[in-house]
Amino acid sequence: MNTPQPRVDFGRRALVLRRGRIAVRLQWRTVVVCTALTVALAGTAVLALMTGSYALSPEQVLSALTGGETGFVREIVVEWRLPRVTAALVFGAALGVSGAIFQSLLRNPLADPGIIGFSQGSYTGALVVILVVDGGYALLVGGALLGGTATAVGVYVLAHRRGVQGFRLIVVGIGVSAMLGSLNTWLILKADLDQAMSAAAWGAGSLNGVSWNQVVFGGACIAALLLLAGTLSRPLRQLQLGDDAAAAHGVRVSPTRLGLILVGVALTATVTAASGPIAFISLVAPQIGHRLARTAGITLVPAAFVGALLCLASDYLAQHIAPNPLPVGVITVVLGGGYLGYLLFTEARRRL
Amino acid sequence: MKLMDATEAAAPTAERQPPVPRRRRRAIGLVGALATLIVLMVLSVMIGSKAIPVPVIWDALLNPPSSPDQFAIRDFRLPRTIVGLAVGVALGLSGALIQALTRNPLADPGILGVHAGASFAVTVAVGLLGVRSAQGYMWFAFAGALIVTLLVLALGTTRKGSSPVVLVLAGVCVGAVLGGAREALQLADPDAFDAMRYWNAGTIAGRPLDVVWPILPFFAVALVLAFAVSGPLNALALGDELAVAQGVRVARTRVLAVIALALLAGGATAIAGPIAFVGLMVPHVARWIVGPDQRWIFGYSILLAPSLLLVSDILGRVVLRPGEIPVGIVTAFVGAPVLVALVRRKKASGL
Amino acid sequence: MSSTPRARRGTALAAALMSASLVLTACGSGGDDSGDKAAGTRSVKAENGTIKVPADPRRIVTIGNTNLPFIDLGGKPVGVTEVSDSELDVLPAKQKAAYEAAEVVGSNGGEVDLEKLAGLKPDLILVQFHSKDWDKVGKRLESIAPTVSWGLDTEWKAFAGEIAEAADLTDALSRQTADFKKKVAKIQKAYRKTIDDTSFVDVSRGDWSDPGTFYIADIGCSEIARDDIGFDLPEAAKGKDPLAYESLPFEQIGELSKYDVITYPVDAGGRPAEPFVPVTKTNSWKSLPAVNSGRALGVFCPGNNSYGPVLRYLDSLDRALATLAPDDAN
Description:
The complex is a heterotrimer of chains A (about 350), B (about 350) and C (about 325). With about 350 residues, chain A is mostly helical. Chain A has 13 helices and two strands; from the N terminus they run ββααααααααααααα. The longest helix of chain A has about 35 residues. The N terminus of chain A is likely disordered. Chain B is an all-alpha fold and about 350 residues long. In chain B, helix 6 runs antiparallel to helix 12 and helix 14 crosses helix 15. A two-stranded antiparallel ribbon of chain B has the order 1-2. The chains are: A mainly alpha (about 350), B mainly alpha (about 350), C alpha/beta (about 325). Chains in contact: A-B, A-C, B-C.
């Protein structure tokens, strides 16, 4: 994936890769940061593969990965640890990009897919499937996706009045989310216990027990969506300059915005469907990426790398920090929140 | 709904010097809001999950009660009405204060980490210290909310004084970290989590008045502080430089406003548990009715917030009879459509 | 995220409360690659198919709600999942020691540490948790050792029986069932007239109840009083949710005046159970006729999904009924 930069050069050093007719301009700092993040990712992934409660030597892990082991050692390394690491990487990247899209679209650092009602909407969808149709897992995921997307579109339509304003979108989103939140609680109150627990179990985000099936399917969806996000990243950067400026550059503002929202929602939805909601990555990854790469606005690539690293490291800690494994979401909140706080304060103090 | 009528009566957007008729309309609206609140308080005593005849209610209020129903009026409906009034006033005013202070439409007391601080303190009290009584939690919640708010203020203060943006971001970060820590504590101790539910429910039912009385003096102090800084906050809305030019002491105004806000939000959270949305929504509505003058916004918020809380509570008693829905769940359902309708009608922002 | 503890609370609650009302679909097929062929195997039927288990299993891991019922049968697990302090506190000392001797492999079913579990080298895994958790980790459990799984809706007597069969503890089970039958018959004989002529209601309040609410406990221990002994206790209409699912506001306490005798939860020492204390402090409760005339009985219910706690409940019920009216006792 690559980020085409706008033609305007801000005086930064840029790297131009050319192959035939395709040319890619990359900023040096972004390249360096992403390379460093890749190294960190690889290190964490190796650590996560090597260590676990079941004692295995590095040689055993290596030979399992290269196909040398059979039986239970192979099962643990290839069927348990590897899909979990892969899932953390892919899902983290998806969440990071999703958050980056929303934050640059709404020009608000507090914006994430939750803000336009996606989280509550998908939960409502899941609840309705559980309570009304009593369907299986596929139906549940379908209901969640449908609910989330329908809510997102609904919020967009409600906020649409001669164009969509960022502020109005946010306020409508808060209102609708809050209402759906109430509806969800009411549905759970009315549901019998087994159904309510189904719903609650779905609502808890964790990577424990993630299988290759989920990773391959989710990964394919995410890859397609990331490609789509890549093609929309140029109009996204232009929208960051303001609707009028973007229109002047020939961007069709409303359809582009809707398309971006849908891609952002679909990215989060895919992750949520596979693992339940993993909080806070979509909120902090773009901010951290933006500060590390020192780009002018929020950019997608650093956000993806930071998201992946954050998710992977959090999941590793979640498995090892306490006597019993914790859901990964607990760690993402503390890690992400703490680090973002640190960045903000140092920056604010320098500036003010 | 009354809210909509009041909106109808309001003149369009902000002028600096409001003409007299507009001021009169705002005053009439204020009286209307007060009347609505009083009617709702009466209804709150009259209507409940159990149908109790009016003579019994009357008798229960005037004479020493003897039957379970009469006790129900005295011990349950009257106290929850009073709790609703106190908590509503505090939530509305704290929301108005934080929005004035940060000029952020997303700001509500939760943003400054108040709920997170209170929740974390209660979790520590229950999980690690073994506190089990409502009175015990309450002081922890109050202290937690106060400490976290002051901590956020300290972190958000830079060499040049505090900036609204840094303040909000500091609140979000502190809130997130405390929230994660609380979650981990609760996962480690499921018993503590169950006991937390008592406090975490966001309801004005079943909160003994013994919990409310000690908090009221703090509310009174905060009320005085809030109105004392309402004028300077008006000036601050024009920007720090202009405010300084008008002789406003910016830092002092902010500190006083944050103290008032912490007392109100902390107290409300300590009494009723986290009730979201009231503090967020009511000041928006008030602003759309009366324009940007903080004194009027504060006045309207103080009356509209308990009204929203009581309407929601009454609805929560009747829709699931004989069960009830905690008010924290209903407020959003009642309030959100109003908020969405208003944001579509009015010119946005006005912050 | 915040729903995780809720799920766990729900699991524990369900174990305590669930009656057989729902049919869950059986999921997956049995993994039968038990390593220890030499020792011989038996077949047991379970939610996840027919499972070949070792004839004499020695290293058993219990997950979810199987922990305490297994220990109650005299079992000594090598691995367990977390159990709340309140449940541990009311366990007999020997059972508590058996629980504490085991390795804790996870906080709840979905978050069980599979690698740690595998490291214990179990020869049998007993599981009762939500089907969602089974979807997450079931296959992997089966790849570690023979796994016997029950749905949350399993009726408690069948549950105890099947655990005993899977874990080869049927001797202990038959002693317990005999004690249970004897105790039920004794209560029925001693209080025949009271049981026939009295309308009872069992009320309760949980830690998880919203403030200012209580509920009518028609599931849990009182279900045994109603269905096994024959008490006249309120019951939800067929096909409806149990009454216990609906929290009633304190305003509704007055409605209890239509019952002759009220039973409420107490702790092992006979004091009102902590979550229930707010109810006993209300004036409405104090002005109820049953409360005024000594017909509100505190009953201790340490659990209701295995015979040991149920027998302790019946003892407590026996003592409470004895205080009711001298002419009824004997």
